[in-house]
Amino acid sequence: MDDHVKLTCNRDIGELEQIVDSTERFFAKNSIGTDIRGTVDLAVEELFVNMVRYNKETNAQIEIEMYPEGNGIKVALTDHDVDRFDPTLHDDVDVNAPIEQRTPGGLGIFLVRKLVDSIDYDYRNRVSRITFIKYQEPR
């Protein structure tokens, strides 16, 4: 049985419905507890939306792959023909600073980095790949 899911999505926020549906099917198919589903959906949505909004130099489709990883999930988002943007190097947002002293942007990436168990970035030949892992909490 192939437990891997691969989606190819247009650069359109409207694809989020298909992505969430695929995540739901993946969780059910692989018997992964739904306790981490919200975190996974949030991370995928944030990363996908950033690729759509900020990588405007391309019309290439975005690939999303999901794999079982121990008692959790590994998700990879791949964007083609884009400039480098490594979310693992993005400065943390100072959530304790007064709102008037904060600069817009970065909160979504900050949340993703805090919520997932690991996040990696690879960039080669104008192909950007962000991979994250989220495990279920031991019971």
Mean pLDDT: 86
Computed structural class: alpha+beta
CATH class: Alpha Beta
The percentage of residues in β strands lies in 25-35%
Give the domain tally: 1
And the CATH topology?
Heat Shock Protein 90
CATH architecture: 2-Layer Sandwich
Distance between the termini: 27 Å
Order of helices and strands: EHHEEHEE
Largest sheet: 5 strands, antiparallel
Radius of gyration in whole Å, from Cα? 15 Å
Unreliable stretches covering 5 or more consecutive residues? none
* Secondary structure tally: strands: 5
**Shape, principal axes of CA atoms:** globular
CATH superfamily: Histidine kinase-like ATPase, C-terminal domain
Count of DSSP-assigned helices: 3
What's the arrangement of strands in the largest beta sheet? 1-2-3-5-4
Question: Explain this structure to me?
Answer:
The chain is 29% helix and 27% strand. With 139 residues, the chain is α+β, with helices and mostly antiparallel strands. The protein has one domain (5-135): Histidine kinase-like ATPase, C-terminal domain (Heat Shock Protein 90, 2-Layer Sandwich), CATH 3.30.565. Strands 1-2-3-5-4 form a five-stranded antiparallel beta sheet, with helices on one face. Strand 4 (118-124) and strand 5 form a beta hairpin. Helix 1 runs antiparallel to helix 2 (37-54) and helix 2 packs antiparallel against helix 3 (107-115). It is globular, with a radius of gyration of 15 Å. The mean pLDDT is 86.
